[in-house]
Structures are given as C-alpha cells and as structure tokens.
Amino acid sequence: MYKLANFKTLALAALAFSIASCNDDDDAPVNLRSSIDYNTLTPTTAYSKTFVDASGATTVDFSEGATRLKMFQALNYYGTSNIAANTHIDAAQFKKLYSNTGNPFTDISTATINVKGAELNSASVQLKDATAASWSATEANKVRSKVESLFDQIDVVSNSLSQTASAGKAGKIGSYLVDEKGIEVLQVIQKSLIGAIQLDYINNVLLDKGLQVDNTTPHAGVNYTELEHNWDIAYGMLTLNPIFLEGSTDATRATVEFGLGSYVWEYNKGAYAKIYPAYLKGRAAIVNNDRTEIQAQATFIRTELEKAVATSAFNYLEKWRTGQNDQERVHAIGEAIGFIYALRFATIAKADAAFSDNIITGLTGSANGFWDIDIVKINTAKDAIKAKFNL
Amino acid sequence: MKSIKTQSIVVVLIITLFWSCSNNVSNDPAPTGEGNNRREILIHWVDNIIVPSYQRFETKLDVMVAKGQDFTNTPNNQTLLALRTAWVEAYVEWQKVEVFEFGAADRYALRTFFNIYPADVNGIMANINDPTANLNIPAAYARQGFPALDYLINGSGTDDNAILAFYTNHADAAKRKAYITTLLTRMSEMIDNVIAYWNKNEREAFISKTGLDIGSSMGLAVNAYVLHYEKYIRSGKIGIPAGATANSAGVAHPETVEAYYKKDISLILTQTAHQAAVDFFNGKNVTTGENGLGFKAYLNAIGAKDNSSGKDLSSIINDQFTVAKGKIDLLPPDFFQQINTDRSKMIDAFTEMQKAVRMIKVDMTSAMSITITYTDNDGD
User: Fold this and answer.
1) Cβ-Cβ contacts under 8 Å for A24 (sequence gap 6 or more)
2) How many Å apart are CA A229 and CA B86, to the nearest integer?
3) Of the candidates B106, B137, B227, which has its C-beta nearest A374's C-beta?
C-alpha cells in the first residue's frame, strides 16, 4: 500500500509537472526525431540521407514536387518542340497536359529532360490545380483561365509558323514564334507558370500556410510528418537534383535545372549558392521542431526566389535595350512579360496582380505591342520593378 | 491557442524586422578603403571626363544644327559644304563620347539614336513621307543620327548638284528639308537630356554605388567600356565591313563601313574612337590633358600583373593598345575602297584589337573582380 500510494503520488506529481511544462512551452511536444546540430550541415550535405527515422530509413520524399516539375517540363516541351519543328500546336493537347487528363504525357528523353509518360499520367497530381493555389478559388480560376487562353492563343498563332512576323502580323522572328503584337506567347506561358506554379506553390502555399501543420506524428502509412513532407515538396518543385546547383559557380551552372531553378542561378548570383543550405537547415529545424529557425529559412528562401524572378524580369528588359536585332529584342520581351506576370505572386515584396498588369500594359498595351516599345517604356517598367524589389 | 498564435506572429515579425535590418546593412556597405578609392575614380570620370566631353560634343553639335538650319533655309553649294564640314567635326567629336554608354547615356539609349549604321535608306525615305513616324522605336534607329545625315547630305544624289536638287527641285523637297531639321533637333534635345540627367539625377547615384557587383557603377562602366571596344570599335568599324569577325565567315561587307556615303573619314572616326577608349582607360582629364584616375590607376593600385611576364597588367594593355593603333594608322582614310582592294590590312588591325579585347574583357575584369554581363546571344 505504502508503495502504491507513493507511486500514485509520484505519478500525480509527474502528471502535474508535465502539464505545467506543457503550459510553459506552449505546445512543444517531445520531438519525433533525434535533434540535428546545425553546425554539422554543409553545402554538400546529402538531403535524403540526413533526414531519417529511428530505423535509419529516409523520411524524405520529393516525388510529389518532382512530378509537378516534370509535368511542367513536359508541357513546356510540347510548345518548344512544335515550334522548333514548325508543327501546329493544339490547345486541347496543352490543356490536357495542364490538367493531366486523358493520359496526355509521353516519354521524353533529351539532354535536359527525362520524363516517363506513364509515370506522369498515373500520378494523382496536376499543374492546373497547383496554379495560383494560394489564392481564393475565384482569383485562382482567373489565372487558370488566363493560362488556358494563352494555350488557345498559341494554337492560332502556330498557324503562322511559316510566316515572318512583323507589326500586325504573326509569325516567326528568327526561331521565335510571336503573335500579331510581337509577343512570344510560349515564353509568356512558361514564365507565367514559373510564377503561378513554382513561385506561388513553393512560397505562398508550402513555405507559408504549409508550415502551420502537424510535425509530431507521421502520416498514415508513411514515416514523415506533414510538415516534413511539405518542406520536401517545396524542394522537389524547385529542382530534380539531389543537391540544387551542386558545384555551380557564377560563371558555370554545373547541374541541369529547369524553370525557376535555372533563373535563380542566372539572375540571383548573390543567393543561389545559399538556397540549398537554407533548405537543409530549415529541414533540420523541422527535425528539431525549431519553429524560429524554420520560419527564418523559409523567409530567406521565399525572399530570394522572388528576387530571382524580379531580377530576371529586370534583366530581360535590359536585354531588349542591348539587343542588336528584332530577334533578340522579341525574345527578351517575351521573357520579360512572362516574368513580370509572375511577379504578382511575389508576396514578400507585396507585389500583386495590379502591379504586374500595370507594367505589362505600359509595355505592350499599345496597338502594335512589342513593335511600339521604346526606351521610355522600358525605363518605366525597370524603374517600377527596381523600386518594388529594392534592386 | 490564441496566445500561441499571437506569439508566433510576434516571432515572425521579429524575424522579418531582423531580416530587413540585415538586408539594409548588406545593401549599404560601410565605405571601405577600396570603396573610397573607387568613389574617387567615379567622381573623376563624371566631373573631369564624361560631362566635359559631352559639353565639348554639344558645342560641335550646336554648330552642326546651326549649319543645318542655314542649309534647310537656303540649300546651295555653300550651305551644303558648311553643313558637311560641321557634320564631320561633330561626328569626330561624337566618337569621344560614344564610349560612355552607361549612366545617363544608357538611360536614354543614346548610341542607338546617334550612330547605328549602315543607314536604313528605305526607312529614311518612308519617314520623310510620314512626318508622324515614330523615331523612338528600334526600327527607326538606323533612320536617324549621323548615319542618316551621312546619306542625306552625302549620298542622296550622285554629285553635289544632284544632292542639292534633292532638296530644291523635287515635289518632296520641303519634307526632305523638314526631316533634316527633325533629326538635328532630336540630337540636340537628346544631348541636353543626357547632360542634364548626369548633372541632376545620375551623378550622386553613380558616385555612391562604389561596389563591384553587377549593379555597381564600376561594374556597369566596365561592361559598357568593354562592349564598346569589342562590338562598336573592333567589330562595327573594322571587323564586320572587312569580314574579319567570326560571324561574317570571311565575307566582307564594305557597304557597312562607318560614313559610307562620305567615305574618306572612316579612318579618322576609327582613330578618334580608339584614342577615346585608350584615354578613358588611362583616366585622361579632358580639360587638363593629364592622365588620372581610371582603369590603369585602379589596376596598378590593386597590383594587377600579367601572368606570363609578371609586368603590370595596365602596361601590357597599353602596349597592346599601341600595337592596335599602329595597325589602324596604316589604313587609308577610305575603308570602303581599302576593303574592295585589299582587306588584309583591315584584318591585321582587327586581329590586334582582338588581342586587346581579350586583355580588357578577361584579364582586366578578372583582376578587378567584375562580371561581364553582356552576351552575344541568349542561351535559350
């Protein structure tokens, strides 16, 4: 009895203490994982091997993000390959690729793309519902409709693949296919989706609201928490490589990157090498359940990804300026328009749809669009971006 | 739960504040010794080289505008010859400022409106017939500036009588004279704008961006300087007309020489442009004529050496400039004729200038830790 009473007292005391400590520590639970010393992480620390469960099995699964990134590659390839081959572009096919309906994906194997159609077709994810996903359904649907209208537009423009474009006339300028206003629609699609899918989903879904999720118990049937998984999807949507930009220097990109990842290297020279370490440290902070550090790394990644898009837009406007012929200028403006569209998803800098749309209208809103652009319009656009992003 | 959320928000706010603080710090580096030295260079450039050079050019340009008015008021042999002389003098003086295509000139895209050649003769004739034509767009670059004037006063007829008839004895004579006036007025306004922009807006911003990063003044100036020497002096004046560039695949295009219609001034334009590039390298004060702060002084200050010889990199570069100048000086005044008879001398000059390009584009920039940002073509 004595022993029992004593045990009861102890148990009660322990319970009381644990409640008290709960109160003190807010909701900090016992960590699921053994903690990781941040100082052990280096720019070449392997991601998957570092984050493991008690049995040593990796808790990292990039596939959901990587699948979307490959779908984006495949969708883009549908446009680029048809333009290169001077073959008609079908809006219906573009839309199927976008929404992953009707088994639209096929195998692609090039120097820079390697996708298996069957894998993508059977995947449960798609690009369309990941577009502008941080926005309300109404606002997101506007963006999705806009993307699909660009598919319709390029379908029509591709009827002019054998023509030479000029003011008021669709066709090719060098290797670039442009509409009657001189806009390279495929670039607008590609760069707009860098914003609407990669930037928005990584920054404003996964690394924002996506951080306010459970980190104490593994999902059913898997060994990672929801928070761990969200972080890993955010990595998978940026790069298909185990180590983002591994071995790259300012002069040479040493990995094959697609979309946002390649522009981070090209136009954010100050930060590209710090992105992977930030992903690593943030993921370690998730293991450590260190909310402050998770937030710090997320904010860093978001800020620098936004900055990469802003400086890309800025530099392509500059390339119009230094372009020596219409071919160079037309491509620069197609890229710039897409990147400027993408800036509406730059929430850290508080850009929005009006910010992007005003710049685009100023640049190409006149009757002949690209063909009417002059240095004053370019300066106005550059000044607006420079001011907003403190470039 | 409420308090937890509040706490999280506070934490986020603190992080955000801290973040923006550290950003500000990194964007606004404390002036260091080197930064201060660069600031001195930038000040010297603006105050003792760039702005005074533009002012000197403006003086010549004003004369050309006045002679242009005389000519359009009274087109005759005398006013035509006077305009031509003023055009040559202004065109030569222009070569001394074209190298400054950064800062204010970059903002106004000055070169594109002053010296894109060969002139687009069909476009000029179209614009004469449509006085409302937009002269600001790229399609109009080669329809204005010195090359368009070259056509209008040297090439619009087979001889002086025919040229005068172009402005006197034709239904469109008034429109043609009006186009000359439009071009001259435009050039005058643009130079005013550029000088005013340097003085009012650009000077302070320019001399305060003392870093070496891509957006720094030194970074922009080096890029503009190397681009100018490579593309607009080496290729534009010599390489493309002589078929010496890689892209021209050995095919000469003598019709693309600078001052194609006047012909006998291609040499002096090239010599002047080359000397201006050398002078800027040496930081030559245009008022006193003394060398001062600039690339040479900077390279010497950081102890930049030539890898193979161990000599000062600035001396090696100056030596190569002298070799290139020697080859240019062997050329005749009329490049068009030279290319048609024997282009080897042009190719010799191109080859020596190419060696200088490598030194300033690779050796100089790497010694200075400057990134060359311009490329020939977009990768995708």
Assistant:
1) none
2) 73
3) B137
Reduce the DSSP state of residue A201 to 3 states and report it.
Answer: helix
**Cβ pair A391:B215 closer than 8 A:** yes
Q: Chain B window 221-240: which residues touch A at a Cβ cutoff of 8 Å?
A: 227
Task: Determine the Cα–Cα distance for residues A70 and A258; give it in Å rounded to an integer.
Answer: 9
User: Whole-angstrom Cα distance, residue B116 to residue B145?
Assistant: 8
Predicted confidence pLDDT, tens digits, chain B (380 residues)? 344 444 444 333 333 333 333 333 333 333 345 666 899 999 999 999 999 999 999 999 999 999 999 999 999 999 999 999 999 999 999 999 999 999 999 999 999 999 999 999 999 999 999 999 999 999 999 999 999 999 999 999 999 999 999 999 999 999 999 999 999 999 999 999 999 999 998 999 999 999 888 789 999 999 999 999 999 999 999 999 999 998 888 899 999 999 999 999 999 999 999 999 999 999 999 999 999 999 999 999 999 999 889 999 999 999 999 999 999 999 999 999 999 999 999 999 999 999 999 999 999 999 999 988 887 543 33
Please give the structure tokens belonging to residue B14: 């603190």
Residue found by looking up tokens 């002389």 in the block: B85
CA quadruple A268, A270, A276, A281: dihedral sign: negative
Cβ neighbours of B7 in A, within 8 Å: 26
Q: Supply B10's token pair.
A: 């506070």
Residue A375: which of B109, B214, B215 has the nearest Cβ? Answer: B109
Query: B9 CB contacts (<8 Å, ≥6 apart)?
Result: none
Cβ contacts of A26 on chain B, cutoff 8 Å: 4, 7
For chain A, give the percent of residues with pLDDT over 70. Answer: 92
Rounded Cα–Cα distance for residues B78 and B80 (Å): 5
Dist. CA B134–CA A359, nearest whole Å: 21
Contact B137 A373 (CB under 8 A): yes
Delimit the domains of chain B by residue range. Answer: 35-209, 211-380
DSSP H helices in A268-290: 272-287
CB contact under 8 A, A328 and B134: no
Fold designation for B35-209: A middle domain of Talin 1 (1.20.1420)
CB spacing of B15 vs A319 below 8 angstroms: no
The residue in chain A having the minimum alpha-carbon distance to the alpha carbon of residue B105 is A375
The alpha carbon of B370 is separated from its chain's Cα centroid by a whole number of angstroms, namely: 20
Q: Distances from the Cα of A172 to the Cαs of A69, A176, A182, in angstroms?
A: 28, 5, 9
Q: Rounded to a whole number, what is the distance in Å from the CA of B26 to chain A's nearest CA?
A: 11
Residue B214 pLDDT: 77
Q: Which residues pair with B147 in a beta bridge?
A: none
What is the count of residue pairs from A and B with beta carbons less than 8 Å apart? 53
Judged by CB atoms closer than 8 Å, whether chains meet at A303 and B19 is answered as yes
Chain centroid to CA A250: 21
A321 interaction partners in chain B (CB closer than 8 Å): 106, 109
A272 CB neighbours in chain B (<8 A) are none
pLDDT in tens, A130-157: 999 999 999 999 999 999 999 999 999 9
Cβ neighbours for B61, distance < 8 A, ≥ 6 positions apart: B90, B93, B187, B188, B191
**ipTM, interface predicted TM-score of the complex:** 0.82
For residue B335, the SS3 value is helix
Burial class (CB in 10 A: 0-12, 13-18, 19+), A223: middle
Distance to chain A for B106, nearest Cα, Å: 9
DSSP helix/strand/coil, A41: coil
Answer whether B109 sits within 8 Å of A372, measured CB to CB: no
- Cα–Cα distance, B20 to B25 (Å, whole number): 9
Check residue A252 and give left, alpha or beta (phi > 0: left; psi -120 to 50: alpha).
beta
Q: How many Å lie between the alpha carbon of A64 and the closest alpha carbon of chain B?
A: 27
Q: Kindly report the backbone phi and psi dihedral angles of residue A93, in degrees, each rounded to the nearest multiple of 5, phi listed first.
A: -65, -40
